[in-house]
Amino acid sequence: MKCPSCGFDNPEKAPDCPKCQVIFEKWFEKKARETEGVNIQMPEKPASREISSSFKYALLALGGFAIFMLVALTIQPKPENPAQSSNAVSGSVEKITVISRGERVEIGAFVVKGKVTIFDFYADWCGPCKVIGPKIEALVAEKEDVVVRKIDIVNWESEVAKQYEIQFVPNIQVYDRNGNQVGQSTSDFSQVLDNVASCK
Known about the structure:
With 200 residues, the chain is an alpha/beta fold. It folds into two domains: 1-44, no CATH class; 82-197, Glutaredoxin (3-Layer(aba) Sandwich). It is built from six helices and five strands, in the order αααββαβαββα. Strands 1-3-2-4-5 form a five-stranded mixed beta sheet, with helices on one face. Strand 2 (116-122), helix 4 (127-142) and strand 3 form a beta-alpha-beta unit. The termini are far apart.
């Protein structure tokens, strides 16, 4: 008997061809019926198939574990709302706080009532941010009634950058003591000073 797909003709040494295996299994069944009582055994299939399927399952398990670890490592705790923090309860408010590192945030929840709140959208890789950042921090240290809430956009595709449609950094927004935005978003420090001054 010859396999029509590969031409192999020795059923005792059937190759690892799925078509040959099917053909030769039928041949062995037919021979067994013809020679009832005679013990004819089908050659064992190579163990490589079992190993490959076991290997496949091991790879799937490893991939699942890798995805789980990736998700677990990227989940960050939500920033604490200063209005709910123990400092706010005791009467003191942190002057400078990072409230987001790329994740969505509702800045309205971080406006400090009774104080001028500056929201500084920045990125660690941004050169101008490294220039204006210390100036804003010095302004906050100098003025008792001014606080800054920093938002690291991380990159242009981050959730917070998309949420607030950030087109440039540094992107500074000033809110008055009642929580209303004063002026437009700016990267000009002199404009930030003007916006803060108009909150008086």
